[in-house]
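It would be a great kindness if you could assist me with a short task in structural biology. The full record is reproduced below for your convenience:
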Amino acid sequence: MRCHIILLLSSLQAYCCHAFLAHPTRPQHFRPHSSSIASSKNEGDDGPLNFLQGIFQPTKEVVELPPAIPDFVVDSDYTIAALFATVGVSFIAIFHGLLGGFVGGFITLLSVLFAVQAGRIKFVFDQEAFELKMGEDLTDSGENIVVGGANRWTYDSFVNWDFFPSLGFPILVYFKETQTPKSDGSEPGQIHFFPAVANCKQLAEQFELRGCASVDRS
């Protein structure tokens, strides 16, 4: 009886091994997570809402800077030189003697000086400042012989400018600035006068164009 039980168990074990080898366990197929499927769909397809958003999305405005004002050299003007020469010669011709010779001669010498300055001094406007230069090659004019400092003044240092007696009949060019240092160490700034040896209408246009401050035109 005991032998029969052992044989029965052995037969059952052999049957189970044969069944396992004949029908192996099927591998489980990988099923991607629903969130990974959704993300892959979102990457591949923007969807209609995203498409409409791209249409109605406001475009960035391109800010265009105003064009730079080109440098300008004011034309020379010999009107004042011719005027003083006429007055000087007239004095000599009308007033004989010492009075006519002295006064008329002095005025005539001034006319020559103005003519020379009209040919040598150039009024230049660049991107930053108003400057006096020398000759056709626009060389540096050096320091101002009256108040010192360079003959160059930035536009934002201007507080006033004008022409005397008027722009229609200019003899002197006037402007005041806050840039030139003073010898006594006080607040910087000087008043400048130049003979009108350049085209004053062009000077006025450039002063206004460059934003130079003016009391009468503010």
